[in-house]
Amino acid sequence: MDATRSRRKHLPANTTSALVLVADDDPPVATVLCAHLEGHGLRTRIARDGPEALQLFRRFRPDLVLLDTDLPERDGLDVLRAIREHHPTPVIMLSAFAGDVHKLVALRLGADDFLVKPFNPFELVARVQAVFRRTHAQPAPTTAIRVGALDIDLQAHCAVAHDRTGRAQPLPLTLTEFRLLSLLASQPGRCFSRAQLIERCLPESDALDRVIDSHLSKLRQKLQNAGQPGLIKTIRGVGYRLTPDD
């Protein structure tokens, strides 16, 4: 058994696909934290300042937030206050200040834990796991995806696009087209290579790259017919991504 699989078995149940938003304006620190979290089976997103942290929180609805108190433009305590107005999402505060004042304020605002920098990344992962256990915040299996003007029901195997007037139009997708759209929409902005798309969406097939290109061409046409052109981008020499905000 490799090291990653060995670590994952120690995670609380159902957290291996949880999304953690890391809000920290220090790129090296954020990168190290994400590497450790992803090494334990978690997914991550990075925000560099307070407004971006709230934007990504509202867009992706993470299962847990790592939030630095000293963020640019809007500090972490203000971001925590805004999150707590509407959401019980677990939040672990990170701070370079060792005094009790920041910690007490953060906990009174609803933070679930507080860590003073510098800290051991393995301790952080342990704290994340402990917060998941305490708050029972393990995400339920995803049954629906909403990205921009797309609504995808994974159980019913159907997808709906909303045009600029708000009118909903079902997409007449084949099974492969539905799999491709669901995968791309599950991680907006991520570029998937053709090999990854074949492995994830046509695992029983010996399809070549040009077969994926053909499926995506038809999928794009159906999205365009439903009033959603340009959602799927070709990244030359790499693969494809879904970018609803472009």
At the third CATH level, what is the topology name of the largest domain? Rossmann fold
Distance between the termini: 42 Å
Q: What's the helix count? A: 9
Can you name the CATH architecture of the largest domain? 3-Layer(aba) Sandwich
Can you put this structure into words, describing what you see?
By secondary structure, the chain is α/β, with parallel strands linked by helices. The chain folds into 2 domains: 3-135, Response regulator (Rossmann fold, 3-Layer(aba) Sandwich); 144-242, Orthogonal Bundle (Arc Repressor Mutant, subunit A), CATH 1.10.10. The protein contains 9 helices and 12 strands. The strands form 3 sheets. The chain has a 5-stranded parallel β-sheet with strand order 2-1-3-4-5, sandwiched between helices. Strands 6-7-8-9 form a 4-stranded antiparallel β-sheet, covered by helices on one side. A 3-stranded antiparallel β-sheet has the order 10-12-11. Strand 4 (91-95), helix 5 and strand 5 (113-116) form a beta-alpha-beta unit. Helix 2 (27-39) packs across helix 6 and helix 7 packs across helix 9. It is elongated, with a radius of gyration of 20 Å.
